[in-house]
Amino acid sequence: MLQFFAKYKFFGIVMLVLSAIIITIIYNVYTIDEGKVLPVYQPNDVTAELVDTTVQHVKKYHKIADFSLTNQNGQTVTQEDYKNKIYVADFFFTTCQTICPIMTDHMVKIQEKVKNDPNIMLLSHSVTPKIDTVAQLKKYALEKGVNDKKWNLVTGDKKEIYDLARKSYLAAKDTPYNEYDLIHTENFVLVDKKKRIRGFYDGTDPEAIEELMDDIEILEKEK
Question: Which of 9, 26, 151, 199 has CA 20 to 30 A from 120's CA?
């Protein structure tokens, strides 16, 4: 009997150590997730080039401004359609051949993951509203598999979209060429039920998308 224990002593110690490590990792993961609180972003927290100069000084109480835009079905979309919803917003244009297709594909994946969750919606703003007419947005939506109940692609007044991007969502760069032109970024913006920004994510990075999905779950548990 003693020979048996002596023979497997090393194996037993290794298994004991591995078990302890695994238990510690699992405990830490659940403890971190349960205790994680997402920050509330203010204009003053964000890189200045993404924020309009009129709001760069703001350090508290920032919320997404009211809006009235037109979606891919020709319907008016306002903040009331997103009332008491968690949503992911971004800025794009349908003729973009660089980062937009990747961002849209990732939005499609998010849409699939939240399709049965009535608390989550998506909102994509065109930065070329004159080109992205209702008909153009509808064509794009059909090509990409957009679910109209979950995801609005919106166009509208150029100044309003500019102000939303730079003064509300803090997610686009200014351009010196034409008034109210934007250089949109790869940012996905996570907005909570109180219209506050709770996270920024690289819409071209699969790992950032996974982080976004985890953060959505955290927001859903938030009181």
Answer: 26
Q: Measuring CA to CA, which residue among 86, 88, 112 is closest to residue 219? A: 86
67 dihedral zone (left: phi>0; alpha: psi -120 to 50; beta): beta
Residues of the chain with pLDDT under 70: 1-34
Nearest by Cα to 46 from 218, 203, 199, 150: 199
- For residue 155, the 8-state DSSP code is B
Tell me which architecture the domain covering 43-221 has in CATH. Answer: 3-Layer(aba) Sandwich (3.40)
Place of tokens 């920004």: 197
Distance between start and end Cα atoms, the chain: 58
Rounded to whole angstroms, how far apart are CA atoms 119 and 131?
A: 31
- Two tokens, residue 8: 């497997």
Query: ∠ CA(108), CA(129), CA(192), 5° rounding?
Result: 50
Residue that is written with structure tokens 């203010």 in the block = 42
State which H helix or E strand residue 205 sits in. none
**Which pLDDT score, from 0 to 100, does residue 32 have?**
40
Residue owning tokens 């993951």: 113
Domain boundaries along the sequence of the chain:
2-35, 43-221
Question: What pTM does this model have?
Answer: 0.83
